Amino acid sequence: MASTARTLTRIALGGFLAFAGVSHLTVARREFQAQVPDWVPLDPDTTVVASGAVEVGLGTALLFAWRQRRLVGVLTALFFVAIFPGNVSQWTHRRDGFGLDTDMKRFARLFFQPVLVLLALWSTRRG
């Protein structure tokens, strides 16, 4: 039962990441730019495109990289950690995006990032 739950979680997480990555590259580029911290040395659009490409890659790998799924889980967890400052920046600079139009909504979102880290690791665990 736990194996099935992990597999379904991994598939959902992979689909979510791939979809989000494609959104970075297409319809939601402006929304994602609101999350880019001011201290990132790249242009916000370049940052969004690069992170979108990484998300598409990680999402696809979560869906199809069966033999390397543990490594993909660790890389996905590290990616979620790496983008967390963007969520903090969006909150501290009061930037709207994706319906996060109040300080409370932006703050509440911060607590979902650790959950994503744990899901990435848990869903790619063997056994």
| Global morphology | globular
From the N-terminal CA to the C-terminal CA, the straight-line distance is 10 Å
Main β-sheet description: none
Give the total of domains.
Answer: 1
> Based on DSSP secondary structure assignment, what is the total number of beta strands?
0
Our count of helices gives: 6
What are the secondary-structure elements, in order, as H or E?
HHHHHH
| Sequence stretches where pLDDT stays below 50 over 5 or more residues | none
Any idea what the radius of gyration is?
Answer: 15 Å
Bin the strand percentage.
under 5%
Please, could you describe this protein's structure?
This protein has 127 residues and is mainly α. The protein has one domain. The protein is globular and about 45 Å long.
Please outline what is shown here:
With about 130 residues, this protein is mainly alpha-helical.
